[in-house]
Amino acid sequence: MESSVSSYQILFFFGLAILIMLGLAVLVVYYGSRAQKRLLQEQMQRQAMQLEHQQELLQHNLTVQEEERQRIAAQLHDDIGSKLGVLHLTFHRLRRMGTDTMEHGDIQEEINQLISNTLETTRRISHELLPPTLEDFGLIEALKEFCEGLRKTGAIEVDFEHPLEREDLPDTTTQLHLFRIVQELSNNTLKYARAKRITLRLEKQKKHRRLVFQDDGQGFSPSPAMGLGLKNIENRVKMIGASWSLNSAPGAGMEAVVEWRKGGI
């Protein structure tokens, strides 16, 4: 009898142990499934946020391009178009008068001045689209010229270090984007930073090349809600397949680093 009871007890505890193990297995599967579902949801949310961010960048890039087109169109219309219109009218005045009058020579000089002004305006607009120094001599020389222009304003000191050769730099289009990034960073520094000095470096590393921009201004707290200038920089960085970082803090100045792989972007 005791043996029989003992056997029942053994079976009871054995069955109970199996139930407990099954229960634990169910709990593990349940919580594992919940954890996996939560991770999947978080991953989907991150992907959705990344996609939304990419769409925002694309939309912003299109907006910037459209604003640039409108600016160029306005310059062509207001500057060159108006000068050509005046030139056209002045030429008709010249045709209506005799060549032996004193006014004839004055109008010729007026036409010559209008042509000269129109050519100068055309050169200025072309320079804004693609700086001749950059096209002819590359990024390093263009940055030298740009830094010298900043120094001549007397508003800020500029140090430029460039231990790179022209062959270390990527294609002309990418160099143009890097040049525009420096322009944008410099404009931000001049407008907001109250800095006394800008330090600009082109660095050569084993597998990468870097553009480093620093100022000793008042700094700021970087925020995901970037201003138009910083969004424009991020767009340019993505367009050339590079990476970048922005480090700043109140009272600690600012540092921006753009990095690309050796041999081109």
Describe this entry's structure for a reader.
By secondary structure, the protein is an alpha+beta fold. It folds into two domains: 2-129; 132-261, Histidine kinase-like ATPase, C-terminal domain (Heat Shock Protein 90), CATH 3.30.565. Helix content is 67%, strand content 13%. It is built from six helices and five strands, in the order ααααβαββαββ. It has helices at 2-96, 102-129, 132-137, 139-153, 172-193, 228-239; strands at residues 157-161, 197-204, 208-215, 243-248, 254-261. Strands 1-2-3-5-4 form a five-stranded mixed β-sheet, with helices on one face. A hairpin with a 3-residue loop joins strand 2 and strand 3 (208-215). Helix 1 (2-96) runs antiparallel to helix 2 (102-129), helix 1 crosses helix 6 and helix 5 packs antiparallel against helix 6. The chain is elongated, with a radius of gyration of 33 Å. The mean pLDDT is 80.
Keywords:
Heat Shock Protein 90; 265 residues; alpha+beta; 2 domains
Quick overview of this protein structure:
By secondary structure, the protein is of the alpha+beta class. Helices cover 67% and strands 13% of the residues.
